[in-house]
Structure formats: C-alpha cells, structure tokens
Amino acid sequence: MAAERRRVPHDRGQYLNRADLEGFEKYAYHGVDTSPLAIYVMKPFWNFCVNVLTPIWLAPNLMTFIGFLLILSNVLILWVYDPDFRACSGSSFGDIPSWVFFYCAFAQFVGHQLDGMDGTQARRTRTSSPIGELFDHGLDSMGCFLQPLASISCLGMCGVINEDNSFFVLWAIMISFFLTHFEKYNTGVLFLPWTYDLSQLLVAAVFLLTGFYGIEMWNIPFSLVTFEVTAGYIVFLASVLSAVFSLLLCLYHIVHAHSCQKRGCILHTLPPPKWPLLTAVAPLLVLVALIAVSAIWKFLSPANIAATHLRVFMLLFGVLFSNITCRLIMCQMSSRPYRLLQLLPAPLLLIVPLALSGFANEEFLLYSYFIVATAAHIHYGVGVVQELCEFWHIACFTIPY
After folding, report:
1. Smallest Cα–Cα separation from 50: which of 134, 150, 117?
2. 3-class DSSP state for residue 227?
3. Which end of the chain is less packed: N or C, by CB atoms within 10 Å?
C-alpha cells in the first residue's frame, strides 16, 4: 500500500505551513527518462538487484541515505589524505594510498546503484510517497558537488586542473542539476538528464584506474591527432562537455514544454502553476546572485582564499547551493511560489564585503560561515522531513514489514 495520508492538525510548523502541506497532498510525480543507458542497462540491472538481492524490509529512504553517506565518506577520506588537492605534487601529507581510491570506487559505484534502486524498492514495497522523492533529490543536490569535488584528488592540481577551472566545472555541474529542477518548477515535468548515469560510472572508473596506476597516470602526455594531451585533460574535457550538454538539454526541454503547452500537447496530467514572470524566474535570479557572489569573493580575495582553501570554499557554496535547490524542489512539489529572499545565503552580503575590505580574517569568516551554514542546512532538511512524516503519519527509515 502506498504511504497512508493521515492529516495531522498542523497550521504551521517550523518550516512548513498548511498551504505547503496541502500542496504536497495534490502532488503527483511526472518524469521523463529517455537515456538509452538508463533504459537498456541501468534500470534492468536495478530491477534485478532489487528483486533478487534486496530484502523486502529495507526501506527505500534508508537505501538513499546509505548511498549518500558512501559519497560523503569519499569526500571526508580524501580531505584527510589530500586536504589541498596537491598529493600529486608531493606538497600535501604524502601519497594517497591505493586502498583509498579502491574504496572510493566501491563507494561511488554502490552509492550510485542505491540511488537508482530506491525508487524500484519503493514501488516493490508499495511505500512510494512525495517524501521519498524529496529525500532523494534533496540528497542529490549535495551529491552533485560532493562527487566531482572528491574526484579532483585523482587528477590533482599538477596538470590541466587548477583552482580556476575546478571552480567553473563544479559550478557548471551544479547549474545543470539546478536547471533540471527549474524546468520542473515551470513545466511540471522532471526531464532526467542523459549524462547522469554515464557521469556516475565515469567517476567510479576514474577512482578505480587511479587505484591501479596512481595519480601519475593522468599527467602522462600522449599524442592525439596533432595535439599532445594527457589522460587527465580528456577526463576534464569530458566533464565540461557533459555539463554543457546537460545545460543545453535543460534549456531545450523548457522551450519545448512551453511550446507544447501552447499547441495543446498533453505532457502530463496536471498543468504546472502559471507563475507571474518574476515568480517564474525567481529561482534563476537567486542562483545567478549566488554564483556572482562566489566569483567576486574568489577573484577579488586579498588572501586568494579559494586557492589556499579551495575545498572548504567550494563546500560552503555547495551547501548554500543545496539549500536554495532544496527550497526549489519544495516549491515545485507543493506548487508554491519561490521566494527571492533566501535566508541562508543572505549573510554573504555582509561576509564578502568584510572579507574583501580586510576588516576581518578571511579564513575565520570562511570556516565559521561554513560550519554555521552546514548546521543550518542539516537542521532544515531534518525538520522538513520530520514535519512531512508527521503529517502523513509514516516513518522515514522503516516500513511496516
């Protein structure tokens, strides 16, 4: 049986009000996945794993959470062994042991499979609910920057990779993820990106190859037609092209959906809300502002903070990105308008001028805000899930079996 919806008296919680909850009650998922890799390879594999290898009592949300923890563990382990992304130059704590990369390959691969299997397990156990989708996509908004951040340690800052292009590639990947949900906010349909599964498998392969052959393999030059390149450059270029392809595909889906609506095509059962123009583009304005502030801080920093503390700098803006994305996902699922004023990134309007003026220590501002923002974002995520679980009278990590 699908999640039982029992209304609990609830005028306003800490994060959700009655209008939000009523919007969730009317929600129905509409997704389109046309990726050949997903249709012909991954989904049959996930169906086999769920029906043959997965116990019936294992809650889908628990599978999602375990997969996220595996991805997070990669970041934490590599943070210990390669805090400045320079293990390849010998300027860090030393060489990264091979077992770290083998573990990261395992964690990346298993985390990806669990993220794909959770929906199948939910349908198998008849426990599908909007909470599952929100929980899955909310954690994906963290994973979309944690995974590439961890993989930078394979390529290192010794060849084609540097602070600037790492900054741009990470933002390009996050923008692609955001646009996927922005188009759903405006069209009512989630168009799953073609590059998702391929990029997940590519990251696992990069970890595995690094475990066998070491970081050095990515910086060995070889001839490609008339150019001399490195394997690291090929991986970097593939990441850039994947992000650009996703961006273009997202824009196409938005234009196509609006065109189809004008012609009377039926893309989904329920039409999306018809937002005023400012409300429709509000999520993009917030994202653009966040990117602009991060770029201003990075390129105008007196202490070159993004070069000396790139990992924490990108983790901070990744957490802020995840927060504004989770709020976008909330709005699209509850059919509520997205607000231009987002509280968690708002302190940047004070912190960045203080950092650039030299009135306060940049490193202290960066680490302090990162800790506070991370704690606040976790509190927000836990609070929202708890309020929805109370509203529907269901448990997040267990099923009645």
Report:
1. 117
2. strand
3. N
Under DSSP, the state recorded for 207 is: H
pLDDT tens digits along 127-165? 888 999 999 999 999 999 999 899 888 877 666 677 888
**Could you give the angle at the alpha carbon of 197 between the alpha carbons of 227 and 321, nearest 5°?**
90
Residues 6+ apart with CB under 8 A from 189: 30, 31, 32, 183, 253, 257, 267, 268
Please report how the helices 130-155 and 163-187 are oriented relative to each other, as an axis angle in degrees rounded to 10.
Answer: 160
By C-alpha distance, which of 57, 38, 120, 134 is closest to 397? Answer: 57
- Cα 85 to Cα 157, 338, 365: the distances in Å are 6, 37, 22
Phi, psi of 223 (to 5 degrees): -90, 135
Contact 142, 322 (CB under 8 A): yes
Report d(CA 327, CA 324) in Å as an integer: 5
Q: How far apart are CA 270 and CA 266, in angstroms?
A: 9
Three-state SS for 4? coil
Around Cβ 355, how many Cβ atoms within 10 Å? 25
Helix H or strand E segment including 290: helix 277-300
Structure tokens belonging to residue 377: 């974002």
What is the pLDDT confidence band of residue 12, given thresholds at 50, 70 and 90?
Answer: low
d(CA 185, CA 285) in angstroms, rounded, equals 14
pLDDT in tens, 314-372: 999 999 999 999 999 999 999 999 999 899 999 999 999 999 998 889 999 999 999 99
Residue with tokens 């934490």: 76
Burial 113-125 (b: 16+ CB within 10 A, else e): bbbbbbbbbbebb
Tell how strand 227-230 and strand 190-191 pair up: unpaired
- Alpha-helix runs per DSSP H in 56-129: 60-81, 98-125
